[in-house]
């Protein structure tokens, strides 16, 4: 069984990844490591930098996750600034920002695997729209879930069961690509 350390402080992300990977023959362990995040619009640069830092500290196979929401009306935004944007302007500011904009959006997760000789990025995207009605179901780890309605659904992500979200999520798509690659290694 291969052991991989998931470098995250977000318990919700870790639990989702653990559920997705539980039947794959990978032992996933959570590790909190302080990592600096480069200030860039490139999600690839962010995830590679964090994976390299984590590997240098642990010297064991690691994965790091970087997830952002992208409003299709705005190029590469908020993307790597997803958390900062919400902390700065909150739901009211998002509603103003998107008032006259097209509401198409997508979540994109990049998972970077790093070991001694390999650095590999896997991506997953989940498209949908932003609603102006904020759901009463709220998870502080994933604020945007309260305003994002995925394609094929009539409810926000926060109103969809965890099992249903995990079947379709952007993180699942990225992790499945990682698992396919690991099987071929």
Tags for this entry?
185 residues; alpha/beta; Maf protein; six-stranded mixed beta sheet; 5 helices; 6 strands
Write up what this structure looks like.
The chain has 185 residues and is of the alpha/beta class. The protein has one domain (2-184): Maf protein (Alpha-Beta Complex). It has helices spanning 11-21, 43-58, 82-97, 162-168, 170-184, and strands at 2-7, 26-31, 62-71, 104-114, 119-130, 148-150. A 6-stranded mixed sheet has the order 2-1-3-4-5-6. The longest helix has 16 residues, at 43-58. It is globular, with a radius of gyration of 16 Å.
Q: Could you give a quick summary of the protein structure above?
A:
The chain has 185 residues and is of the alpha/beta class.
Q: What is the fold's blueprint, element by element?
A:
Elements: E1 2-7, H1 11-21, E2 26-31, H2 43-58, E3 62-71, H3 82-97, E4 104-114, E5 119-130, E6 148-150, H4 162-168, H5 170-184
Parallel strand pairs: 1-2, 1-3
Antiparallel strand pairs: 3-4, 4-5, 5-6
Helix pairs in contact: 1-5
Tell me roughly what share of residues is in helical segments.
Answer: 25-40%
Number of helices: 5
Number of domains: 1
Q: For the report, how would you describe the main beta sheet?
A: 6 strands, mixed
State the distance separating the first and last CA atoms.
13 Å
CATH class equals Alpha Beta
Spatial arrangement of strands, main beta sheet: 2-1-3-4-5-6
Number of strands: 6
Low-confidence stretches: none
The CATH topology turns out to be Maf protein
Order of helices and strands: EHEHEHEEEHH
CATH architecture: Alpha-Beta Complex
Global Rg: 16 Å
Shape: globular
> What fraction of residues sit in β-strands?
25-35%
Mean pLDDT: 91
What would you call the structural class? alpha/beta
């Amino acid at each position: 069984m291969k052991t991989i350390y998931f470098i995250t402080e977000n318990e919700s992300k870790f639990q989702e990844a653990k559920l997705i990977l539980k039947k794959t023959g990978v032992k996933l362990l959570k590790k909190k490591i302080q990592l600096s995040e480069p200030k860039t619009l490139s999600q690839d640069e962010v995830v590679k930098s964090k994976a390299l830092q984590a590997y240098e500290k642990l010297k064991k196979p690691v994965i790091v996750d970087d997830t952002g929401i992208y409003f299709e009306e705005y190029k590469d935004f908020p993307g790597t600034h997803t958390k900062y944007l919400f902390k700065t302007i909150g739901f009211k500011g998002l509603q103003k920002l998107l008032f006259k904009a097209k509401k198409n959006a997508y979540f994109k997760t990049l998972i970077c695997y790093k070991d001694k000789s390999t650095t590999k990025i896997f991506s997953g995207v989940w498209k949908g729209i932003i609603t102006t009605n904020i759901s009463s179901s709220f998870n502080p780890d994933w604020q945007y879930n309260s305003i994002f309605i995925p394609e094929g659904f009539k409810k926000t992500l926060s109103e969809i069961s965890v099992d249903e979200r995990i079947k379709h999520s952007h993180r699942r798509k990225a992790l499945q690509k990682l698992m396919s690659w690991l099987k071929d290694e």
